[in-house]
Design a protein that fits this description.
The chain contains four helices and 21 strands. It is of the alpha+beta class. The protein has a four-stranded mixed β-sheet, with no helix packed on it. The chain has a three-stranded antiparallel β-sheet with strand order 11-12-13, with no helix packed on it.
């Protein structure tokens, strides 16, 4: 074999090896929907994902150290401080944030209190609909077109939406979008808009729970990856940690890494909390899987009959 033939063979082998790697990577493409942990909660808090090694799909824990610097006598949104008595500024205000003021809340901890918005309008009559808008809090008036085919439609990622309906953008899930006449695939205002602060924003109105290391709880049909938590579970005197490891670390401390925190309790990876200690823990399974916040979800209704 000549030197040129040998070199050509090496190039072919290298190329085939490259193709094999590309195929393998594509087959193992990261699927974030399978990542564990209360990820929407972490995102709302602005915590940073920590990976075991570069290129990993799912984080093994999150860094939320910035919360330690929070003053319980101030409100926070978008990293900005608000004094007690200060009103929410327009640059931090979502459409339904009406009359929001930083007040001393439960336990004296500052939190935003807003007016309760009631958008109840009843179900639209047959053949009619209400139009939603990303920059408005409540839907518009009822529309009853003479010809249903006159209702505008929007094609998004191969799916058709009708005028007034919400739709999502795969590569930018934070956008709030609605189908309106004139939509041509450009996800800009007035068709789409980003909220001024995340709707799952625990610091906005749940400062007490954060300071006291309460944990978010999700209903069985909710995804901790994308949903805002339904309610919170806070520590009480009847709560205990159930160790799932045969030889648990006896002297865990809040300063340890790779642990979850619940009130003044410390949970190691795999540890669970006991259930039915108060109203908010009935049929709720809490496990430490992606520190520092345990993942808590109510058991399916067909499993728990409380």
């Amino acid at each position: 074999m000549t030197h040129r033939d040998s070199r050509s063979l090496n190039l072919i082998c290298a190329y085939l090896a490259f193709i094999a790697v590309v195929v393998a990577v594509d087959q193992e493409k990261c699927d974030k929907t399978k990542c564990p942990g209360p990820l929407a909660y972490y995102k709302g808090l602005g915590c940073s994902p920590v990976y075991e090694k570069e290129g990993d799909c799912c984080a093994t824990k999150y860094n939320c150290d910035h919360l330690k610097e929070r003053d319980p006598n101030k409100c926070y949104v978008n990293g900005k401080q608000y004094e007690i008595g200060e009103k929410l500024r327009d640059e931090d205000k979502n459409p339904c944030d009406i009359g929001c003021t930083c007040n001393a809340g439960h336990g004296g901890i500052a939190t935003f209190n807003c007016a309760i918005v009631d958008c109840f309008h009843g179900q639209a009559k047959p053949g009619c609909y209400r139009t939603n808008y990303p920059l408005k809090c409540c839907p518009g008036d009822e529309v009853c077109p003479e010809n249903p085919e006159d209702r505008a439609t929007c094609n998004v990622n191969g799916k058709e939406y009708k005028e007034g309906e919400y739709f999502s953008i795969e590569n930018d899930p934070d956008l709030i979008c609605t189908c309106q006449p004139g939509y041509k695939g450009e996800n800009v205002e007035p068709f789409c808009a980003k909220p001024k602060h995340p709707y799952c924003h625990p610091e906005f109105s749940h400062s007490y729970e954060i300071v006291n290391k309460c944990v978010p709880v999700y209903y069985p049909n909710q995804s901790p990856l994308t949903s805002c938590n339904a309610f919170s579970r806070c520590q009480n005197d009847n709560d205990t940690v159930i160790h799932t490891k045969e030889n648990p670390k006896i002297h865990s401390s809040p300063e340890d890494e790779d642990v979850c925190h619940f009130g003044n309790m410390v949970m190691q990876l795999g540890d669970e909390l006991n259930q039915d200690t108060d109203y908010n823990s009935i049929c709720v399974r809490c496990v430490c899987e992606v520190p520092p916040v345990p993942t808590c979800q109510r058991l399916p209704y067909n499993v728990c009959d409380h």
